[in-house]
Amino acid sequence: MADVHEPEIRSYNMSKIRSKNTKPESALIEYNKLLKANLLVIDDIMMFALEKKLAVQLFNFINHLQEKASFIVTTNKSPEEWVKMLDDEVIATALLDRIFYRCEVIRLSGKSYRIQNRKTIFN
User: Does the domain spanning 26-122 belong to CATH 3.30.420.40?
Assistant: First the structure.
């Protein structure tokens, strides 16, 4: 019988990598761990605007892994809004091009599941 390899599941908060208080050596170790991933889940991408330097780093990261790993990306922003959030049409287009390459887009609509379960707060 073949050995069954259990996948290693790691969760990273990207702020650990880009925090001003993070030592460069620690950030590099965390970044290198991410580069070995088979599946990356990026939740709520573009929730906040990115400075150009961070946008370029994100592009380089996605570009490096696009042929080596699978991605699940969630966002509530349209591609047009990405341009505004990044304040750079070229970077936004290049980043979206890498993310949309060989992808399946699943659009969800309707009320937020999180808000739906918190009706008492909003009523």
Answer: no
